[in-house]
Amino acid sequence: PESNTYRELAAAVQQQLNAVGLSRVRVREVPRADILTQRQDFDLLLFDYAWGDYRALGIF
Question: Which pairs with CB-CB distance under 8 Å and at least 24 residues apart come from 32-35?
Fold first, then answer.
């Protein structure tokens, strides 16, 4: 995001997707802050699931 290097990589990935018939899949630019926020939310969700599994095992 927000970098020519990433844009060039995204263009190369898009070309490869098109080459294998996945032209409906689109690579898009997302601001870095949005990526970090979404990743943090995902990490917390994984922690919640792991904690639930840990507590379930503790019952036995």
Answer: 32/1, 32/2, 35/1
